[in-house]
Amino acid sequence: MSDSPSAWPADDPPPEPPIAPPPEACCGSGCDPCIFDFYSEEVQQHRLLLAQWQARQALREHTKPI
Predict the structure, then answer these.
(1) pLDDT digits (tens, 9 = 90+) for 7-35
(2) What pTM does this model have?
């Protein structure tokens, strides 16, 4: 994707957060990685994508023609 706001898609929804696995999804046997490790990675990725999306929105607002 281009860095230019005009090149960004008009429809730019925020990223969807990951769905947390239910507590019973963990078998409790000490798996490495555990299902909750995967979820933690997804949460970290979502935070990064959300921060990037928020930056795009702020820049888009800042560069709107008057």
Answers:
(1) 666 789 999 999 999 999 999 999 999 99
(2) 0.77
Integer Cα distance of 66 and 61 in angstroms: 10
* Contact predicate 8/62, CB 8 Å: no
> Exposure string (b/e) for 17-39, b if CB count within 10 Å is 16 or more?
eeeeeeeeeeeeeeeeebeeeeb
Residue type, 1: M
DSSP string over 3-63:
SSGGGS-S--PPPPPPPPPPGGG--SS--SS-HHHHHHHHHHHHHHHHHHHHHHHHHHHHT
Q: What are phi and psi of 45, to 5 degrees?
A: -65, -40
Return the number of other C-beta atoms located less than 10 Å from residue 7's C-beta: 8
